Amino acid sequence: MANPSIVKKPSAEEKAERIGDQVLALDVKRVADWIQALVRTLKAYRMYLPNNPTLHKFQSDLEARTWSCLKEIGDIVLNVQQFDLLFEDYSVYHNAAREESLAFRFYTDGVRQITFREGLEPQELRGILEVLKKATDPTQGQDDVVTLLWERDFRHVEYVHISIDEIVEEGSGADYPPDPNAPDGGGIPWPVSSVAAEQEAPIQGPEETVVDRSDDWSPKAKVEATWDESSVGIQFNLTDQETRALNEAIRVEEERPLLNEVLEIVSAILKSEEEPTSFLESATSFQKFIEQALEEGDLARANELLSRLRTIAAKRAETHGEFRALTEQVIREIGRPSFLGQFAPILNAHPELDPALLTNFLVQIGPTAAGAVCDLLGQVNHMKHRRALCEALAISCKDDVDVLISRLGDSRWYVIRNVVYVLGRIAHQGVERALDRALHHEDVRVRKEAVRALGNIESPTSRAFLVSAFRDLDASVRVQAALTLAQRRDDRAAQSLWGAIQAPDFAKRDQAERQVFFEALGKCASDAFVPRLSELITKAGLFRGPNEEERFSAALALAWLGTPKALEVLNRELQSKKEQVRRSIETALETVRNAALGKGAKGPADDDAPAQESGPAEGTP
For this protein, what is any one GO molecular function term (predicted)? Predict the structure, then answer.
């Protein structure tokens, strides 16, 4: 016997066969799990209303499983039997209950094979669920499955079916002898028992030879087995040490990370390609690794692989300039809407993902993915992920805002609000008129975001739109416009605010709003406005209410102004003989001091930040 400490290593063919069996078993399990998720979601369709959150959870889980399964194994081809669905000759679904079995429903309607192609879109998956629900619902008459599939004409679903005549022939069977009493030309076949069949069979005499059909014969030569395994005993036994060594070698081989080895091989091939066609094929293979990392939620690996692809392409482009364009073509394919659109369930299922990695990955893809990223804004649940998406759009679309402007016509207010925020971050002159559309949106949150975005653009047009927002029907929009305009800190902004204060309808507004306008005036005015404000402290006539409110508002503006001339007026009036005047100035100074120390109330400028209110929690279907 050989040395027990030495274990024979499996050959390359044995390794490949074993790995192939493991991969097949894993694929069969993936498909079986996916069909179970499909059945669960179909049951949820029957139990819950379309807008039920539980149903949405089942739908999201099924979409994620479908996307992952198709990417892992490619097209899913299911062969249909009476009570089973087979994948690679393995049963991945079995249900003998005729009323509930999907396999029985497909089989009885003539479907013998159904294929789900890679690239199956979420709306197609929902359409398939509708077909299955309608086909298996007794209250809807159980329409023919083939007809329902034909009416939908799915792009990524194919099926093989047989005609009604063939279904009848399959059901009629071939073991029924003809009725002897039936007239020539056929009749209804009646089954007979095996005993009757034996009685009717002709009896062969000892010397009589039965002539069989040419395709029903057996060889006359008697074939005997040359190897009788039962007669051979155990040839050898492994010692305990050999068994442990063998198990350890098997474990090491099974845990060996093949993915990294394959990746290194593909990278080496990509670096050595000389022909454009071959380079494109290798880069496309590299693309699959990147997409797989995204499907698994591994943003760090996806970033690293995408960066490596760009590095290799840049190096090869030094001698082959056309390789750069081919690489960009492959990277654009990663940002296609059909792929990134299915990334939302993964982000929703993994709130722990680093948003910085998400932003960096989308920036590496470039502005061609902007449309798909805008779609994700309406599907992602977590605020930090939406912020990462907005950050990526602000960087990628810095020189091309047309795709963002086109999204201002979206029917979802939260998508428009995030797009407006991104436009404000980019702050391009020339988009003011596009933001004016958002300034007249029916949702007040969109209008407030449009005001903030206009505040980032320094142009006469944006200033005019901000002043027009003083007439908005909502007080919070007017307040936001005042504070935003005050950030300009010039006399033109102060003059606009003073004009709003002197407007006839200003006295009818809420007291808190009036005080905000005075505060904004103090933040952007100059000493030229000190005499006007000083006059308001000692005289009445602006408001219809008591003089205390007027004095306090004017003193508040001077306190926010804070120039030596303004402080001189306040110190002088602190010595006034009128208690109301002293109390108004003291209250104004205390308010400004508290605000400087961070003790003041939250101002409108600190209102909900972009992307905090948006998301499925507020209306995403």
Answer: oxidoreductase activity
272 and 145 inside one domain? no
3-state secondary structure 587-620: HHHHHHHHHHCCCCCCCHHHCCCCCCCCCHHHCC
Within this chain, do residues 38 and 56 fall inside the same structural domain, yes or no? yes
Q: Is the dihedral of CA 183, 186, 189, 195 positive or negative?
A: positive
- How many C-beta neighbours within 10 Å does residue 538 have? 14
556 neighbors 519 (Cβ within 8 angstroms)? yes
User: Residue 529 contacts by C-beta under 8 Å, 6 or more apart in sequence?
Assistant: 494, 498, 521, 557, 561
User: CA-to-CA distance for 220 and 20, rounded, in angstroms?
Assistant: 41
Domain boundary among 117, 135, 170: 170
* 493, 497, 500, 501: CA torsion to nearest 10: -160
Residues 348 and 297 in one domain: no
Residues 263 and 374 in one domain: no
Examine residue 314 and state whether it is found in any structural domain, yes or no: yes
pTM for the model: 0.55
Residues 387 and 305 in one domain: no
Contact 125, 63 (CB under 8 A): yes
* The pLDDT value given to residue 201: 46
Q: Judge if 356 and 320 occupy the same domain.
A: no
Q: For residue 384, give its domain range.
A: 335-400
Distances (CA, A) of 465 to 228, 422, 453, 459, 525: 96, 18, 11, 10, 20
Mean pLDDT of the chain: 78
**What's the pLDDT score for residue 16?**
53
Q: Mean pLDDT per 10-residue run, the chain (621 residues)?
A: 48 57 79 89 82 78 85 88 89 85 86 89 85 76 76 86 72 49 46 45 47 49 52 64 82 71 83 86 87 88 90 87 87 85 86 90 89 87 90 89 88 90 88 88 93 91 91 92 90 89 87 89 88 78 55 86 87 81 84 74 38 37 29
- For 175, list phi and psi in degrees, rounded to 5: -100, 15
| Residues 149, 38 within the same domain | yes
Of 299, 334, 369, the last residue of a domain is 334
Which residue's entry shows tokens 């929009």?
Answer: 477
Q: Please check whether residue 521 is in contact with residue 501, taking contact to mean a CB–CB distance below 8 angstroms.
A: yes
The continuous run of DSSP H or E covering 320 comes out as none
Shared domain for 391 and 312, answered yes or no, is no
Local structure of residue 116 (DSSP, 8 states):
E
Spatial separation of the C-alpha atoms in residues 42 and 377, rounded to whole Å = 27
